[in-house]
From TrEMBL:
Protein's name in the database: Fibronectin type III domain containing 4a
A Pfam family it matches: fn3
Location, primary (coarse class): membrane
Listed InterPro entries: FN3_dom, FN3_sf, FNDC_type_III_4/5, Ig-like_fold
Amino acid sequence: QVAANRTPTPVNVSVMHLRADSATVSWEVPEGDIVIGFSISQQRQDGHMQRFIREVNTTSHSCVLWDLEEDTDYIIQVQFIGLYGESQASQKVHFRTLKKTDRFSSNSSNQDDPTMQGLDKSRHLQTGEMIIIVVVLVMWAAVIALFCRQYDIIKDNDSSNNKEKVKQLSERSTPEHHSGGLLRSKVSLNEKCSRNLLPGRISF
């Protein structure tokens, strides 16, 4: 029962993605065991510069070691943090950082580095996003220019139609006086009445 409650020991501990100033430590958790964190002890092979890294509430199976010295031998050990405490330390893993002059060759040899692939993908995404943004802006500018042109044409047509309507209304509101209009007929009727009423022309 005590062995069942014991936190498992890390297995398959390895170091990859070696560079002059960094390295990545990875491990595996035995199937069926529960691990809530890890701790890594790091030291140079000559015994100097001891470092201890501890993380909890994580399910990560790797950790990046930063600020390493170039062309230097290191020793690391990994422990799991479980519900019942820390596990036994893993076997010691030795590795040696690269020289700064080997960085370029290491980049070519680490084609499978997910960090480098992520950077390349992010660069491609940024370039593609910029192209899409430029195309969208150009299309919007073209649409706005076309809309303004159509609006000017419609506005000109409306103004010309309004002018024609005003002209037609003004022509309809102006009275036309013909020679045979109502005014002349009234005048001729008055003249006839006045002639009939003149003295000497009254007939019985």
